[in-house]
Write a structure and sequence with these properties.
This protein is mainly alpha-helical. The protein has helices spanning about 1-15, 30-35, 45-55, 65-70, 85-90, 95-100, 105-130, 135-145, 160-175, 180-195, 200-205, 205-215, 230-235, 240-255, 285-295, 310-320, 325-330, 340-345, 350-365, 385-400, 405-425, 435-445, 455-460, 465-470, 480-510; strands at about 75, 80, 215-220, 225-230, 265-270, 280. Helix 8 packs antiparallel against helix 20 (about 385-400) and helix 21 (about 405-425) packs antiparallel against helix 25 (about 480-510).
C-alpha cells in the first residue's frame, strides 16, 4: 500500500507539472514562448532569482531578467531585486541545475515544488495516523488534500505555498510525536527557514512557536497561585534559529548594504525603460492622487500589507466568493469540521495547535491587501488550512464511514472537487479576481470569466500547460482527453478508496 500510494501520487504529479523543453536564457526569456507559456505571474520573479544566482552568480537581477519578472520587482541602490523572500528560489536551484543538464531547466525547477507537494501528502498521512486515524483513512485524506483542493494547481507550478506547507507540517509532526531537544532545535530551524521562504510565515507559524515555548515553560495553575517551571536545557533549542537568521542577514546585506532591509519593502518597479533604467511607481502620474486617497507611504513597511479593515472582504473572498471561495473550489474540506469534536475530546494540545494555525491562516490573509492572490486559482493562501482540515477529515472518517448518507455525499463532493482542481492543474492557475475581470470587461467590451469556467475555456483555446502533454501526449490525444484521463483516474481511485474504507474497516470492526 505504501509503495502504491507514493508511486500513484508521483505519477499524477509528473503528468501535470507545467513546462516545455528548453533552457531559457536572459536573452530569450522575454519571448512569448516563455512568458506566455509555463511562466505565470508571480512564478517569474522566483525563477528570475534562481537563474541570476545560478547562471550570473548574482543576487540582483539584470535589466532583462527584471523585465521578465515584472511586476514583482523592486529597485534600490541601483539594483533590481525580486520582491519575494529568497527561500523558494534557493530551494529550487538544484532542480534548475539538474534540469539544465538535460535541456529542461524550467521543468526541473518546477519539479522541485512537486516533490514538496508529494512530501506534504506523506506528512498529512503521518500526522493523521498519529492523531488516531487508520492508515487507510489517513491515505484517503492525504489524497483529498493533494488532488481535491487548489493545492493540486500549486503543486505543478513555481509557487512557494507547498514549500511553506512542508515546513509547517514538519513542525507539527515533530511537536505531536515528541519534544526531545534535537527535535525542538529542528522546529526552531524550520521556523526560521519558513520566514526565508515567505515573510508572512513568521506570523502564520506563531501557534507553532507558542506550542514550542510551552514545552520550555511549564505553567501550572493552582487555587491560590500560578507556578512556572523553566526547562533550562530546552532553552538552548532557540539556537536552531541562528542559521536561517544569519542567512537572511547575509542576503539583505549583499543587496542593500544593511541586514535589516527586506526585499518586499523597497520601491516597486512599474516598467523597465529601453536603456535599462527603472520606471518606479513613485514616478508615475497617478502616484500623488493614489497617495492622497489611500495615505500610502513611499517607504513600505513589512506590516503595511495587513489591515483589519480588509477582514470582512477577505473572509468573503476566501470562504464564499465565486472566484476564490472554498465553497466553490473545495467544499470537501468542510467535512473536516466533523473531526473537530472528536479530536477535541482527546484533551491533548494537538486540537488547539491545529485549529490555531487554521484560524491564524484565515485571519492573516483576510487582512492581506490582496486576498485574491493576484491572478490565481482558488485561494492559494489557504493551502496550509487545506492540509490541516484534511487531517481532521482523516479523524472523522471513522464516523463518516458508518453513515451511508454522509459517505455518499463525501464521495460525490470529492469527485466534484477533483474535477475542478485537476482542471486548474492541467491548464493554468492564473484567473483574474472578479473586481479585475469586471474592470477588463469595461475596457474591452468582452466577457471575462473569473471562476474555473475560465480554465475550461483555456483547455480548448490554449490546451494544457503540462510538460508531459506538450512533449509527448499531444501527439496522441487532445487536451480534453488528457484532462479526462487525469480526472477520471483520480475520481476512480479516490471513490473506490472511500468505499473500500467503509467496507473493509466495517468488516474488521465486526470481526473484532
Amino acid at each position: 500500500m505504501d509503495v502504491f500510494y507514493i508511486l500513484f501520487c508521483a505519477i499524477v504529479l509528473f503528468m501535470t507539472v507545467a513546462g516545455i523543453y528548453g533552457n531559457p536564457s536572459a536573452e530569450s526569456i522575454n519571448q512569448d514562448l516563455w512568458k506566455k507559456g509555463p511562466f505565470e505571474f508571480a512564478q517569474r520573479a522566483r525563477f528570475a532569482l534562481t537563474y541570476s544566482f545560478v547562471e550570473e552568480k548574482s543576487l540582483a537581477l539584470s535589466a532583462s531578467m527584471a523585465k521578465f519578472a515584472l511586476p514583482d520587482i523592486g529597485y534600490k541602490n541601483g539594483k533590481y531585486v525580486s520582491l519575494f523572500a529568497p527561500g523558494t528560489s534557493f530551494v529550487t536551484a538544484p532542480g534548475y541545475i539538474l534540469g539544465n543538464i538535460f535541456g529542461i531547466s524550467q521543468f526541473g525547477t518546477y519539479l522541485v515544488i512537486a516533490v514538496f507537494a508529494l512530501l506534504n501528502t506523506v506528512l498529512v498521512r503521518l500526522i493523521s495516523q498519529k492523531l488516531g486515524a487508520s492508515k487507510m483513512a489517513a491515505s484517503v485524506a492525504s489524497f483529498i488534500f493533494l488532488f481535491a483542493t487548489p493545492a493540486f494547481s500549486y503543486a505543478v507550478n513555481l509557487y512557494q505555498h507547498h514549500v511553506s506547507a512542508f515546513l509547517l507540517l514538519s513542525c507539527v509532526y515533530l511537536l505531536v510525536t515528541s519534544q526531545s531537544i534535537p527535535k525542538m532545535i529542528l522546529v526552531w530551524f524550520l521556523y526560521g527557514v519558513a520566514v526565508l521562504v515567505d515573510y508572512p510565515n513568521g506570523v502564520l507559524m506563531l501557534p507553532v512557536v507558542i506550542y514550542a515555548l510551552l514545552k520550555i515553560l511549564k505553567i501550572k495553575a493552582e487555587e491560590n497561585n500560578v507556578q512556572a517551571r523553566l526547562n533550562l536545557r530546552k532553552m538552548f533549542t532557540f539556537l536552531g534559529l541562528v542559521p536561517p537568521i544569519l542567512f537572511l542577514f547575509w542576503f539583505n546585506k549583499s543587496l542593500f548594504n544593511t541586514p535589516y532591509q527586506l526585499t518586499g519593502t523597497v520601491q516597486d518597479v512599474v516598467d523597465i525603460r529601453p536603456d535599462g533604467s527603472p520606471l518606479l511607481y513613485t514616478q508615475t502620474k497617478n502616484f500623488v492622487e493614489q497617495l492622497k486617497e489611500s495615505q500610502l507611504a513611499i517607504n513600505k513597511s513589512a506590516l503595511g500589507f495587513f489591515n483589519t479593515r480588509n477582514l470582512i472582504n477577505g473572509l468573503y473572498t476566501h470562504l464564499v466568493s465565486p472566484d476564490r471561495g472554498i465553497i466553490y473550489y473545495t467544499p470537501v474540506i468542510l467535512f473536516g469540521l466533523l473531526g473537530f469534536s472528536k479530536l477535541r475530546r482527546r484533551g491533548s494540545g494537538e486540537f488547539s495547535l491545529l485549529t490555531s494555525i487554521i484560524g491564524v491562516n484565515l485571519i492573516l490573509y483576510s487582512m492581506w491587501g490582496d486576498p485574491w492572490g493576484g491572478w490565481s486559482f482558488g485561494s492559494r493562501y489557504l493551502i496550509p488550512t487545506y492540509a490541516l482540515m484534511t487531517i481532521f477529515i482523516a479523524v472523522a472518517l471513522a464516523d463518516i464511514k458508518k453513515n451511508t448518507l454522509l459517505l455518499f455525499l463525501l464521495v460525490v463532493i470529492t469527485g466534484y472537487c477533483v474535477s475542478v482542481n485537476s482542471l486548474g492543474a492541467v491548464t493554468a492557475s492564473g484567473n483574474p479576481p472578479k473586481v479585475e475581470a469586471e474592470s477588463l470587461e469595461a475596457k474591452s467590451g468582452q466577457k471575462e470569466k473569473y471562476t474555473f469556467e475560465r480554465n475550461w475555456d483555456t483547455l480548448f483555446i490554449r490546451g494544457s500547460e503540462s510538460f508531459l502533454y506538450n512533449g509527448y501526449a499531444a501527439k496522441y490525444v487532445g487536451p480534453l482527453a488528457y484532462y479526462l484521463i487525469v480526472t477520471t483516474t483520480l475520481v476512480i481511485v479516490l471513490s473506490s478508496s472511500l468505499l473500500s474504507l467503509a467496507f473493509f474497516e466495517k468488516n474488521e470492526d465486526s470481526i473484532k
